[in-house]
Write a structure and sequence with these properties.
With 376 residues, the protein is of the alpha+beta class. It binds fe (ii) ion.
Length: 376
Amino acid sequence: MSGHDHSHSDLHSEQGRLAGEHVGRSAQPVVKVRDIAWLEFEKPDLVAAEAFSRAFGFTTTYRSATELNLRGALPGAPCVIIRKGRRSRFVGPAFSAEPADLLRLAEHTGHTVQRLPEHLGGTTVDLREPAGARVRVVADVLEHPALPTQDVHTFNVGHDVRRVNATQRPPRQPAVVERLGHVVLQSDRYRASLDWYLDHLGMIVSDFLYFPGQRERGPTMSFIRCDRGDEPADHHTLALTLGPRSRYVHSAYQVADLDALAAGGEHLRDLGYQHSWGIGRHIQGSQLFDYWRDPDGFLVEHFSDGDRFDASLEPGWAEMTASGLAQWGPPATADFLGVAPGRESLHELLSMTTSLRSDNEFDVPRLLGLLKVARS
Ligand SMILES: [Fe+2]
């Protein structure tokens, strides 16, 4: 970042806020969460889920007949919790906060602070955001000690030769997941969901996107980070996007570097798992990325080298386009954009017809805007 003019004038997000547009943060949030803690899912087949999780680079911390907990190598709580269920579904995200903040949230929303099961430790307050998703805020959960991570490669660059009499041999093995980075959620009440997260959890917007030609109707996607003051936080811990129904879009897990990401992808390919999109480098957040489908069709991302912003930066504004999802890499695939023939896009089409009739933020101009995104 150049200087400290508080602008956010990087490549592709050259525009700042116009008068009257969303400021991207709450004047007086109820609390400020520190980070995302974990994601919860239900799945019918825990054996298949664990096999994929090993190949993707997770370590199992807890396994019973009805529950599986997965972690990254950096110290902390598990980052994915899967319970046995009749069908596959995303249950919701959990964010971590100070114990006193759970009490504040409980008091403010009329909920209660509850104890988590012994293998997780700590307490939770379970909230609901306007689109209906369950959002947990947890404190004092059990922290697992660090596990070995993959070494970052030593590169010879130009005349800067750091590797002599030694070869470069990235092992073709699972990319070791270090931690959960972010989750992307779609909401049919995007603006209400966004304001709920900013007002209740004190999160702040790093970048806004709007449908092509619809800036005056307001943003339709936001990349949201935790407000840690002077301490830098991930460019986005949560991203929200407007769509015809509320659903999980993808979640992203940090790995060591490009070689770990690429070799880990080859390992997943060798095992026959379904690739979705990559490898490339994103614009909003700048991460190197590679997207995969787990056995239940959930989209999961390996990422490395993401941007960190402290609380001083104001949101950037840009048009939302398929070509604007990456600085380099193959074009976004139909699978990634959710327009490939299959269960997910069928759901999406069916929900469009009901969504256009019901009381939410998704109307006909928004549908036309969304269709324009995939083509641009
Ligand atoms: Fe992502």
